[in-house]
Amino acid sequence: MRKLLLFLCLSVPFLGFAQDPTGWWNESVFYEIFVRSFYDSDGDGVGDFNGITAKLDYLNDNNPATTSDLGINAIWLMPIHPSPSYHGYDVTDYYGINPDYGTMADFQNFLTEAHNRGIVVLLFQIITMVYFFPTQVVIQLKGIQ
């Protein structure tokens, strides 16, 4: 995993992201979403991916002739991974989805529907803050798998 992260960090400048001053992001309208507080689709008091999916037409209905949407073309999602805190900045599983926000299938459906509307989805990845439960630390220190 460390090799993959190192490769990604070193390869970003060569992929053209840092070198293209006229990149797609310069012409984009971004909308940042804290999933927990955006829209609750199931009435449990917590926003979720199905709620975001339900409001995609309000954000961008993919019809340039309409004026009833915000016209965004990029969504930046705040942390969506499992975390012991409400804000999600101390991630416990980078491969998982916070169960308060729905399932991986809900996320994939949101992603598909966003792409169908021409919306790019970016994830806020917190790679510098990782939360370990005490038992995980002990297991790692002892080398137990």
- β-strand amount: 5-15%
Number of DSSP helices?
Answer: 6
Instruction: Indicate the mean pLDDT.
Output: 79
Give the ordered list of helices and strands. Answer: HEHHHEHEH
Strand order of the largest sheet: 1-2-3
Total domain modules: 1
Radius of gyration: 18 Å
Low-confidence stretches: 1-17
The CATH topology is given as TIM Barrel
The CATH fourth-level homologous superfamily: Glycosidases
Structural class: alpha/beta
Total strands: 3
Question: Describe the biggest sheet?
Answer: 3 strands, parallel
Helix content: 25-40%
CATH architecture: Alpha-Beta Barrel
Q: Specify the CATH class.
A: Alpha Beta
- Shape, principal axes of CA atoms: globular
Measure the end-to-end span. 16 Å
Structure, described:
With 145 residues, the chain is an alpha/beta fold. It has one domain: TIM Barrel (Alpha-Beta Barrel). It has 6 helices and 3 strands; from the N terminus they run αβαααβαβα. A 3-stranded parallel beta sheet has the order 1-2-3. The longest helix is centred in the C-terminal third of the chain and has 13 residues, at 104-116. Residues 1-17 have low confidence and may be disordered.
